[in-house]
Amino acid sequence: MGVLKLLRPTRKKVVILAILVIAAFLVFNFFGRPKQNQLQFANVTRQDIKATVSSSGNLTGKSSADLRFKTPGKLIFINVKTGDKVFAGQVIAGLDTQDLSIALQQTQNTLRDKQATTDKVLDDIHLFQYGNGGFESVGSANETMTQRQLRTTAEVARDNAFDSIKAVQRDFQDTVIISPIGGLVTQAIQVPNQTVTGADLITQVVDTSTVYFDTDVDEADLGKVSLGLPTEITLDAYPDSVFNGIVDQILPQTKITTQGATVVTIRIKLDNPAVTFVNGLTGQAAIIIESAKGALTIPQEALREDNTVVVQQDQVLRSQKVIPGIRSDTDVEIKEGLQENEKVLLS
């Protein structure tokens, strides 16, 4: 009787049994069955394709000048501010010249003194020579050793005094900054009456008559780049705009990046970009090595190493030999072997 009572179905036992059956079913379906990888396909499409060499860089002008004083001093005036246009030869800034004016007067006085001394020595020599032989005896050829030494000493002192004047006059020139180029003032100190040194940047002028984008290309890609290649520039400040240009210069000097890579600077001449020029704006350059319009293309992952693809036709997969062409960052041109709208397997 106890066994029969244990085996007798009850509502509680039926519910527990149902829960166990459902749990077993779910475990089998989610963990027991082997998963099948779903094949992915892409259509053969017709589009424009470009092979590029891409690298980052900066916006700049045709040339630039960082203007500093050669000697320290008190800044008296600065005639420009950031954003101004200047012309070549324009006076930009100047230092206090009071001390130099005093020094110039002192050197001029010294020259007058040394010149008078020289004249006196020569007069004495010539008078001595005249008294000992007349006019025919006057001249350096008839000087005694003592006379020659006196004359030479006086003339050297006079010449040194003259050189001192030239040095002070040169220092006067160094108290004024004159722009060597015309262009846009991109930096300018704005605090006069302060002491500045030769290390202080007073003004930076950039010639914006031609706008360039300088970019560093890895030496491994240099063989792909040549003068005149079209280039597309995107600036971080204008992410929705593309600026066109051409490779204008390949600078004949390598440099090493902080990561240890060897790069070469490429100068790209932009076609009059309609943007406010800001020296140093960062961006990306895509130098177009090859391009084709309306080419048949497939994703690069569909092309195998042996230049074959797997084509789906009537739910059947078959291998197809193709001839690839231009490769972009994501796609590859197919010159022969496929037709538009065919489906290819992605590996």
UniProtKB/TrEMBL annotation:
<keyword id="KW-0472">Membrane</keyword>
<protein>
    <recommendedName>
        <fullName>RND efflux pump membrane fusion protein barrel-sandwich domain-containing protein</fullName>
    </recommendedName>
</protein>
<dbReference type="InterPro" id="IPR058792">
    <property type="entry name" value="Beta-barrel_RND_2"/>
</dbReference>
<feature type="transmembrane region" description="Helical">
    <location>
        <begin position="14"/>
        <end position="32"/>
    </location>
</feature>
<feature type="domain" description="Multidrug resistance protein MdtA-like C-terminal permuted SH3">
    <location>
        <begin position="295"/>
        <end position="345"/>
    </location>
</feature>
<dbReference type="Pfam" id="PF25967">
    <property type="entry name" value="RND-MFP_C"/>
</dbReference>
<feature type="domain" description="CusB-like beta-barrel">
    <location>
        <begin position="211"/>
        <end position="286"/>
    </location>
</feature>
<comment type="similarity">
    <text>Belongs to the membrane fusion protein (MFP) (TC 8.A.1) family.</text>
</comment>
<keyword id="KW-1133">Transmembrane helix</keyword>
<keyword id="KW-0812">Transmembrane</keyword>
<dbReference type="Pfam" id="PF25954">
    <property type="entry name" value="Beta-barrel_RND_2"/>
</dbReference>
<dbReference type="GO" id="GO:1990281">
    <property type="term" value="C:efflux pump complex"/>
</dbReference>
<dbReference type="GO" id="GO:0015562">
    <property type="term" value="F:efflux transmembrane transporter activity"/>
</dbReference>
<dbReference type="InterPro" id="IPR058627">
    <property type="entry name" value="MdtA-like_C"/>
</dbReference>
<dbReference type="InterPro" id="IPR006143">
    <property type="entry name" value="RND_pump_MFP"/>
</dbReference>
